[in-house]
Design a protein that fits this description.
heterodimer; A: mainly beta; 7-stranded mixed sheet; 4-stranded antiparallel sheet; B: mainly beta; 49% strand
């Protein structure tokens, strides 16, 4: 079955870059029927979608406007994973970060976020 | 952004009760709505997609309905594992995808 395994530090200093990786098993990061997403959750913001990366003959990234100037996604086909890089972090970026798959099928259409990583609590503090 | 508003924010119920949670979208999202269940310290779990389609492996006591701007999640007979927080999410527009604020279902 499809699984997403997250890794990365739980503590980042203000103004530095938050980097997380999501390793995929049971599916491919370059699948033409899936998108690979990052979502975060905090008491103040609730569940907040940060963006997605996907492959349709070439790579595409869609970013939420709220973080667009600071965020980058990097798919890695050799390791079948994708990563999140959020720079210039502040304490407001403290949250649990999740990666998640959105999949499409002929039978069901778009399936919302059907597979999630385990979550990574990231604290921004000096 | 499409705003998603859930009600109630908290719901107290007993095992065996039938409960309904409502989600309203600030504009039409057709049927591009999902429902998730989240337990403390865990990732959200997909229950319903396309407003009324039951995700594989999810018990049939969960059902969803609605289209346009008004949606409901119904649990026909509450079981102990159902006491959790529930979220709706629209995926009509990825600019951005948005979630409701959550409904905490607690034991009465």
């Amino acid at each position: 079955q499809v699984q997403l395994q997250q890794s990365g530090p739980g503590l980042v200093k203000p103004s530095q870059t938050l980097s997380l990786t999501c390793a995929i098993s049971g599916d491919s990061v370059s699948s033409d029927s899936a998108t690979w997403n990052w979502i975060r959750q905090s008491p103040s913001r609730g569940l907040e979608w940060l963006g997605r990366t996907y492959y349709r003959s070439k790579w595409y990234n869609d970013y939420a406007v709220s973080v667009k100037s600071r965020i980058t996604f990097n798919p890695d086909t050799s390791k079948n994973q994708f990563s999140l890089h959020l720079n210039s972090v502040t304490p407001e970026d403290t949250a649990v970060y999740y990666c998640a798959r959105e999949v499409w099928s002929v039978a069901t259409g778009w399936h919302a976020f059907d597979i999630w990583g385990q979550g990574t609590m990231v604290t921004v503090s000096s | 952004d499409i705003q998603m508003t859930q009600s109630p924010s908290t719901l107290s119920a007993s095992v065996g009760d039938r409960v309904t949670i409502t989600c309203r979208a600030s504009q039409s999202i057709n049927n591009w709505l999902a429902w998730y269940q989240q337990n403390p310290g865990k990732a959200p779990k997909l229950l319903i997609y396309k407003a009324s389609s039951l995700e594989s492996g999810v018990p049939s006591r969960f059902s969803g309905s609605g289209s346009g701007t008004e949606f409901t999640l119904t649990i026909s007979s509450l079981q102990p594992d159902d006491f959790a927080t529930y979220y709706c999410q629209q995926y009509k527009s990825y600019s951005p995808y948005t979630f409701g604020q959550g409904t905490m279902l607690e034991i009465k």
